[in-house]
Design a protein that fits this description.
The structure is a homodimer. The first copy, chain A, is of the alpha/beta class. Chain A contains twelve helices and ten strands.
């Protein structure tokens, strides 16, 4: 039988696990790496089955559980679900399945939006995300949990993901599409706008210019890194030893491991576009059946 | 042991199988349906793992074999691989695995391009397709097989798939992106342009206007329907009986069956956008493990 609920992990030298549907979660990895330079990471991108944002609850749950089980099997002290769609749809199932603390990106992004607007009784919060995340209502539910008054608008922006993957971050065509995708948001005139998909921070400049300088953008990845830091501190799981004696930490250095379920070359290529550097340790693996393992 | 090579099928009342990575293959279904109104079809869209165009050879082969095995298990007289990427990468493996005649879309599209330009010694043929199809060189190889003289340009157009799926077929943003994606093609100034991805016929108008009226567009789906008709005729497998006594054939009527591996609602929605009608018989199924069956 699989355990229910997190088991007690005491080894603070274990890495932090991160999974995403593909390459987008690298923006969450970057945020975690910047906030927690003394930690090391194992990242899994499910590139064989990306994207999740147009798939069903059942399928996203199944994929998320296989990914989580793979990372759990490698030994991690906490699991970060970087993918907004998987965070929106599959957190309860993941928690049920793996005996490790799980932190998604929706809660932190929603709490950050509420925190920023807490002194404004007429606050308006907009969220842009994938179709699946918007349909799940996860951001709105999470915002409502802590702030019953904010007006909320959720809006899908389906073309932002391929535009980010193509690296069209400055193109006038991207500005034209952003104007169209964000027309509802501009009309809503929010105080804050949550970037509810890991790819969207790549288009931050275009998005900010389209909605205007007065709108505060929230990167759920950065909000998540903050909460992961708090969690590690509270549980005494922060790595207090020096992680490397020989080198200054850098993004994608050889202390962090990257796994993909397909097309490692393409992942490395897009990673370089997103982070300015290719992962040193990158391996293609298979995750089918990892959810069938009884012990990690 | 699995059989090698096609077994002898004699029952002309069996349906024609079609698989695609998702919804794009519906343009091939439409072409087949129009050309062969006396046949009925089983369509499988692998919506749980779409898209294939950015995935590796090994992964596309594995998915293609599972899909083909599923369709073979339902009883079909010929298998049409509507997905260009799977046709480019996986035809040999599919033929090795299932004991049924297999027709892909690359060969028919390439042969049509050569046929149209055969009296022109300086012919120039352009092909637009996914990254994986372009990298495979399958169209160029197939064109070279029958025409050694044509000049060939292959060009990926990655944003055309999401634009087609969103139904942005007339938007000025689509024209702007087409101008950018097709800049090389316009400069090359081809005689014919092969639409080497099932989604591209959806954007036919934009593509035609961007490359100019003088360029002949080739829809690989239509070329494939032609070759399927010839094959059925030659093998005596054309359905000579009346397929239905009660109704005129229509696209997506209840004689044709549609299967998806995920998100049937979304499939029905996009099908309506592509074909103007939702499938009457549509079911979500699982294809994992179908390649492990020994007998169909």
């Amino acid at each position: 039988m699989k355990e229910k609920g997190p088991k007690t992990i005491t080894d603070n030298r274990l890495p932090i696990g991160i999974f995403d549907s593909g390459v987008g979660g690298l923006t969450v990895y970057r945020a975690l790496h910047n906030r927690l330079p003394n930690e090391h990471f194992i990242y899994l991108g499910d590139t064989a089955r990306v994207p999740y944002g147009t798939k069903s609850l059942e399928t996203v749950e199944r994929y998320a559980i296989e990914n989580s089980s793979f990372l759990a099997s490698r030994g991690i002290k906490v699991l970060v679900v970087a993918c907004n769609t998987a965070s929106a749809l599959a957190l309860p199932k993941i928690r049920e399945t793996i005996g490790i603390e799980v932190i998604g990106v929706i809660g932190p992004g929603a709490r950050k939006a509420v925190e920023i607007t807490r002194n404004n009784p007429d606050a308006k919060i907009a969220v842009i995300a994938t179709e699946a995340t918007v349909s799940s209502n996860a951001y709105a539910d999470s915002i409502r949990e802590t702030s019953s008054n904010a007006k909320i608008l959720q809006n899908p922006c389906p073309l932002f993901v391929p535009l980010a993957e193509e690296g069209w971050t400055e193109e006038e065509e991207t500005y034209a599409i952003a104007k169209k995708h964000l027309a509802n948001v501009v009309e809503f005139s929010p105080d804050v706008l949550v970037l509810g998909c890991t790819h969207y921070p790549i288009l931050r400049k275009v998005i900010q210019e389209t909605v205007g300088r007065d709108v505060t953008l929230i990167d759920s990845g950065e909000a998540t890194a903050e909460e992961v830091a708090e969690f590690l501190e509270k549980r005494g799981l922060a790595n207090t030893g020096q992680i490397s004696y020989n080198q200054e930490r850098r993004l994608c250095d050889d202390l962090d491991r990257f796994y993909v379920t397909d097309a490692a070359d393409r992942f490395a290529h897009v990673a370089e576009r997103f982070l300015g550097v290719k992962p040193k340790k990158l391996e293609a693996i298979e995750v089918f059946g990892f959810d069938k393992l009884k012990e990690y």
